[in-house]
Amino acid sequence: MDWCDIAVLSSVLPITGYSTDRAVMNGDGEHSQTEQTESKQDGGGDTEQGEDPNEQEVIVIQDTGFTVKIQAPGTDTFDLQVSPQEMVQEIHQVLMDREDTCHRTCFSLQLDGNVLDNFAELKSIEGLQEGSLLKVVEEPYTVREARIHVRHIRDLLKSLDPSDAYNGVDCNSLSFLSVFTDGDLGESEKRKKKGSELEQIDCTPPEHILPGSKEHPLVPLQPQNKDWKPLQCLKVLTMSGWNPPPGNRKMHGDLMYLYIVTVEERHVSITASTRGFYLNQSTTYMFNPKPANPSFLSHSLVELLSQISPAFKRNFTALQKKRVQRHPFERIATPFQVYSWTAPQVDHAMDCVRAEDAYTSRLGYEEHIPGQTRDWNEELQTTRELGRKNLPERLLRERAIFKVHSDFAAAATRGAMAVIDGNVMAINPGEETRMQMFIWNNIFFSLGFDVRDHYRELGGDSAAHAAPTNDLNGVRAYGAVDVEGLYTLGTVVVDYRGYRVTAQSIIPGILEREQEQSVIYGSIDFGKTVVSHPKYLELLEKTSRPLKVHRHAVLNEKDEPVELCSSVECKGIIGNDGRHYILDLLRTFPPDLNFLPVEGEELPTECQQLGFPRQHRHRLACLRQELIEAFVEHRYLVFMKMAAMQLMQQKASKESGTSAAALSVAPPPQEDSVESQSPLEGKEAEESIPGLAQVKELAHSLVTEDGFDPKSREVVVNACKAVGSISNTSFDIRFNPDIFSPGVRFSDDNTEDIKKQKQLLKDAGAFLVSCQIPSLVKDCLDHTALPMDGATLTEAFHQRGINVRYLGTVLEFIDKAPTRAQLDHVFRIGITELITRCAKHIFKTYLQGVELSALSVAVSHFLNCFLSSFPDVVAHLPVDELASRRKNRRRRNRVAGGGDNTAWASLTPSDLWRNIVSEAQEYYHFTLQCVDQAVERYGLQKITLLREISLKAGIQVLLKEYNFDSRHKPSFTEEDILNIFPVVKHVNPKASDAFHFFQSGQAKVQQGFLKEGCELINEALNLFNNVYGAMHVEICACLRLLARLNYIMGDHPEALSNQQKAVLMSERVLGIEHPNTIQEYMHLALYCFANGQLSTALKLLYRARYLMLLVCGEDHPEMALLDSNIGLVLHGVMEYDLSLRFLENALLINSKYHGPRSLKVALSHHLVARVYESKAEFRSALQHEKEGYTIYKNQVGEAHEKTKESSEYLKYLTQQAVALQRTMNEIYKNGSNASIMPLKFTAPSMASVLEQLNVINGIIFIPLSQKDLENLKAEVQRRQQLQESGKNEEQLENSQLELEDKLPVD
To answer: Are 309 and 263 in contact (CB under 8 A)?
Structure first.
């Protein structure tokens, strides 16, 4: 799908809002660049002043739409809503998508007889206004148009077929929400049934979803979607063997020939001519291009086929009806390909377009672009050069950058696979396979091996494998800083079949020159020879502050100092296009000394205690950008604290303490409360760091009143020295990335400076282990961070700047923690991640030795060794399907494997697990207890391990039940391995303006201004749509927040509609069982319940529980929330016994993870008590409510309303119990003629269930009148002015953290 289509969609569908309360966090781990880079883009986060003009600009953008009438041949005239910014082409796209006009592709739009230019904006067309009539006029075909037409018809025929999603092509991906909601949510017919719905719900969940079930089936992961039973319209549609038309037929207007077999088994040959499509008289073996009689000449292929095949006519109409009924989000292409690790067995059908695509270099729609292949470098750099002065310009620029990046990532992935599969000729074919380089479709590909001993000193192949990802991080960082005039290469890193391929765009002219001549800045030999260039220094100087890179001098081979403002490896090359490119950014960030032992250097004690420095496989271990930011933020606070203390002492001695008193209000910031926040710049920072506002004032006073006072200057100098600032007059911390690089030398004059830089690096390493790791564990403990699987755990690491190579350290830290039991879930996820990563490292080298014909056998053998319980797994070497046993020696020049091609077959389970244990020790420095029983010992789930290894290694397995426990036969056979997918890392360009709106919206919401917040977030949504198109993770977060706001403000149907979009998008963009998707399902269930759709709510909750069991198992704090939700809904539909099973499980999990005295546990007790009350088992009810009451009394005191409520409820239960006992006694005494008082058994009302649901999901409603609202606002403003010593922000901050992505409204 093209940009224009998406814009059309946004004008046709009411595509509304999304958010990022966790958007950056959801970024698929690899890409979650730190948030603050956004706020820097427009000059260092001075968004406060910038906001108003922005809002003005936005209003300009949203020109009001108008309606035009469209008249197409064969249909009635209809109205179409358009907007002035749209291009004419976008109307074309809408018509090609509409049910009644979708079969037309080759037409022009005419207004009063004048043909409209496809690329003109509507506002520029004279006479086009509200109510104008546009005529659709059929145009003659060309070869290109005929091909587009056939391709479009094929797409329409395949529109409900999920095979593209399984095969991971054309940015299709799976979505199953509609299976559980039976079509669209909130439809009016359903509402009518609302009253009678209670009786007819079957609430029993499948056995494997019940608490305590040991079964974890895989098949329900992809429930059967009834729409996918294909409606067959044709048996075969393919290009005829008579193509291309001979010269004499070309001159009759023949463009190409098609061969078709209809469902009725009629074989026909069709000519595509300039006038349209008609039947000719050719057969399979005889060419007779004359028109048949009748020829059924039609302008569209669909019209022709409808005349010759009744089944086609019937099924095509039905298919298009179904197609347009699907939610647009189920069919729009995603910006980057998402691969599914499971797939059912799909029949392989004949498909001419697919066959043709496989043999052309088509990428996207190549043949629609003049000049065939795209000049990727030119496109990537030109989009960067677009204007960015005002909002419309920036939107256009960001949209173009994003689009070209997503196209480039798709092209690079396709090229990398072609390279490894051996479909691309090398540019140096004579060399050994691992040294070969490739060019395909204007992209340069190289393999991740150490070619020509380039990395010999840095760790050989391991370094060559790590360098591309480091380089990508560098490209990402420089791209985010976005300095005009400085260019980076398009870079994509693809791991496929055990090889790492780097794909880069090509600098114009670089292939004609030797590298030595081209490099005018940096070094090509790791610092032995170094050159510099004033223009590069000027450009890089602009990046040095945001990236914290220190400008420094290194010695070249003649011992002369050379000025650099980057690491030595960073090379500057001026292309033939005159642009200044930088490449090889693998050392953008400083080295991580914890993994870089250096002779004669001592690390701080906190590192040494943990056994650092440790030997690592390569010497390229760098600190993450997030860590650098957090470290600098931390140092800034230390700096301010020191300056404040010294100044106070001075002032106190100078004058009576008026101003000193003012200063002493500033509390010394607690370090940990700071660490846990991401370092933001500008406005946000002031809100998130206690006491920072005062510190800012202090800094201001330092500069103003005492600007000339030598004493206060001395204060600043001392503070600068103490924190290692590079300047003596202001706080400025930057790192020299070349410290400790082998081969780099510094002159002796700089010794002092170098010493300071070395210390800074050691401090940063110490900060990581002594602050960031404990803060991560603390966040897991108080559930601010809630990892559910490997990807979300990795994300939590990266957000805090911790590299995954610290996984072993973190696990040991957790294992020794006093609260070890409450961190069980994190420990288990960590161990799973550790084992699967080690297995992936082994799998990578294992695959390199496998030839293509044995791939499925080899992968299934590896999985058997890894997961099967079958003791002697033997690899059945493939019985060569072609029987010839002659060893094929000529095939050795395939991709590097070398060695005996069947070595992989000798792997045994005990070998593999021994290797995993030694890999864990070597790489992560973690000792895995026990070799074979790791799964039992750590309580892991094999199905979870299968999911993790498949996602990491790109394996796609057959969707079926695998028996991991059988000791009689292996779990996997070669038939179970369906595919190997690439794992792709790329840059994720951001929508900066949208992100600012989003953040301002969030801030407003947290201050309680819901309506304003809602408007800002809607605005953000529009801008996100403008840049990213309709599908993106950040849009998904935007929608989730919007739905939550709609819900809180009482608009349930709107909440439902937005949340439905969020779920669909999360399934499509992140994956059907991604942890975020699971949470979206839970939110949607709540809104369904509020809308009276009880059975749907239950289905959604059961789905969420199934997915969660698959992804992380039952023992997880989030499971308690899920089970409380299920239990409450079941209570509401009077399924008391089932309800108890879930609620009691929630109680157990809550007690384990929140401690037995937590308020969550008290609430759990209360929910259980209510169900017992409904069952009239008052004794059990009393018991639970007493537990809850005790917790409330101890935690919040007798006077608190919660305690009072609980005490009231206890009284009520006691009365009920007494009444029941009385009645029973009466019956015993007087037998059948007892006069029985009617007892009150209460079935819970829906309202009371909903109220409890809101409470457990952290949603608080405040019934306020307009007057209350005014007062509240005034109060909030008053508080903000007071900003009583930063405490309010802390409270806001804390409440925001506790409720994690729940919105507190104070």
So the answer is: yes
Tokens 């990578």, located at residue? 844
Q: Using one digit for the tens of pLDDT, what is the confidence trace for 658-712?
A: 443 333 333 333 333 333 333 333 333 333 444 555 555 565 555 544 445 677 7
Q: How many beta carbons lie within 10 A of that of residue 562, not counting itself? A: 19
CA–CA distance, 24 with 918 (Å, rounded to integer): 35
Q: Which residue's entry shows tokens 């976005």?
A: 482
What residues pair up with 488 in beta bridges, in sequence order?
A: 582
- Alpha carbon of 346 to those of 209, 829, 898: distances in Å? 27, 33, 35
Beta bridge partners of 258: 239, 270
Tell me how far apart the alpha carbons of residues 870 and 434 are, in angstroms, rounded to a whole number. 36
- DSSP-derived pairing of the beta strands 561-564 and 342-343: unpaired
- Given a contact cutoff of 8 angstroms between Cβ atoms, the answer to whether 340 and 956 are in contact is yes
Q: CA triplet 505, 508, 514: central angle to 5 degrees? A: 100
* d(C-alpha 1024, C-alpha 41), whole Å: 17
Sign of torsion over alpha carbons 1097, 1103, 1106, 1109: negative
pLDDT at 29: 35
Find all residues with CB under 8 Å of 612, minimum gap 6, and list them.
593, 594, 595, 603, 765, 769
Amino acid identity of residue 559, one-letter, is D
- How many whole angstroms separate alpha carbon 533 and alpha carbon 538? 9
Unique residue bearing structure tokens 């090229």: 415
| H or E segment to which residue 1101 belongs | helix 1094-1111
The pTM (predicted TM-score) of the whole model is: 0.85
Residues 447-489 have pLDDT tens digits of 999 887 888 888 899 999 999 999 999 999 999 999 999 999 9
Task: For residue 1069, give the 3-state DSSP assignment.
Answer: helix
Helix %, strand %, coil % for the chain, to 5? 55, 10, 35
Radius of gyration of the chain measured on its C-alpha atoms: 33
Which of 213, 160, 164, 63 lies closest to 1108 in space, CA to CA?
Answer: 213
Vertex 142 angle, CA 140 and 148, to 5° = 105
Report the C-alpha gap between 507 and 375 in whole angstroms.
10
Rounded to an integer, what distance in angstroms lies between the CA atom of residue 340 and that of residue 346?
Answer: 14
Check if the beta carbon of residue 272 is closer than 8 Å to that of residue 146: yes
